[in-house]
């Protein structure tokens, strides 16, 4: 299990709001929920647990980080978050050249604010539940290896402790039992775990990144 304690001056990828073209989503994708929150002051769409949304395909991104839809549900304090991706490959290249040892190479993240505040700013994140791969490179010339996706991607929940005066955020691993379900057939990643204090009024936001090739999130759709 990859261990992480402190990131100094941590900034996770946040993109500007990108209006979604007025095109109907594909039938296989979850529709943007009626009455969905339209909060997106500088980041990706803020949602409530239990809501779903679609997102346009981006040919400029690899399929495994191109979000085409998301869905979520909440039972008590157990959050289920689903990423619908353009593709979930059977195999993927891991520990690539250009990615330093222990750096997060791939990540599929659900950011959570317990009180329901906007997640456009990183310091509003109380918890993050993420599927990820951290690079393991013994030297600069360690070759990348093609490996089964299911074997290399793991899941963890972190509690965020912010120090605004120092521009630092400490990520503390939460001792819970997160579950990751990978479906190549349906191009889905499902993340499940208990998030202490979460409610139907909390805010969640979905994002992905490949440290070398880009990032994605659920874009804001004007009402």
Q: Give the neighbour order of strands across the main sheet.
A: 1-10-9-7-6-13-14
pLDDT average, as an integer? 81
**Major sheet size, sense and barrel closure:** 7 strands, antiparallel
What portion of the residues fall into strands of 2 or more residues?
35-45%
State the share of residues found in helices, binned by percent.
under 10%
Number of helices: 1
Describe this structure in words.
- By secondary structure, this protein is mainly β.
- The protein is built from 1 helix and 14 strands, in the order ββββββββαββββββ.
- It has a 7-stranded antiparallel sheet.
- The longest helix has 4 residues.
Short recap of the structure:
It contains 1 helix and 14 strands. By secondary structure, it is mainly β.
Short key terms for the protein model shown above:
223 residues, globular, 7-stranded antiparallel beta sheet, mainly beta, disordered N terminus
Task: Compile the SSE list and pairings.
Layout: E1 6-8, E2 53-54, E3 67-75, E4 78-85, E5 91-94, E6 104-113, E7 127-134, E8 145-148, H1 149-152, E9 154-163, E10 168-173, E11 179-183, E12 188-194, E13 203-210, E14 214-217
């Amino acid at each position: 299990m990859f261990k992480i304690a402190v990131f100094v001056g941590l900034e996770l990828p946040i993109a500007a709001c990108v209006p979604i073209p007025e095109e109907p989503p594909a039938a296989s994708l979850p529709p943007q929920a009626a009455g969905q929150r339209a909060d997106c002051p500088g980041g990706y769409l803020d949602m409530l647990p239990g809501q779903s949304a679609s997102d346009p395909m981006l040919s400029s991104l690899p399929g495994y980080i191109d979000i085409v839809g998301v869905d979520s549900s909440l039972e008590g304090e157990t959050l289920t978050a689903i990423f619908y991706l353009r593709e979930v490959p059977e195999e993927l290249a891991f520990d690539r050249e250009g990615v330093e040892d222990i750096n997060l190479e791939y990540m599929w993240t659900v950011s959570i604010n317990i009180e329901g505040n906007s997640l456009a700013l990183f310091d509003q994140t109380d918890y993050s539940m993420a599927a990820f791969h951290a690079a393991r490179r013994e030297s600069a010339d360690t070759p990348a290896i093609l490996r089964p996706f299911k074997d290399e991607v793991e899941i963890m929940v972190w509690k965020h402790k912010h120090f605004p005066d120092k521009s630092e955020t400490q990520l503390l691993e939460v001792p819970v039992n997160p579950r990751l379900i990978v479906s190549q057939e349906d191009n889905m990643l499902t993340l499940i775990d208990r998030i202490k204090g979460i409610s139907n009024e909390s805010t969640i936001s979905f994002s992905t990144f490949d440290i070398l090739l880009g990032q994605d999130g659920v874009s804001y759709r004007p009402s």
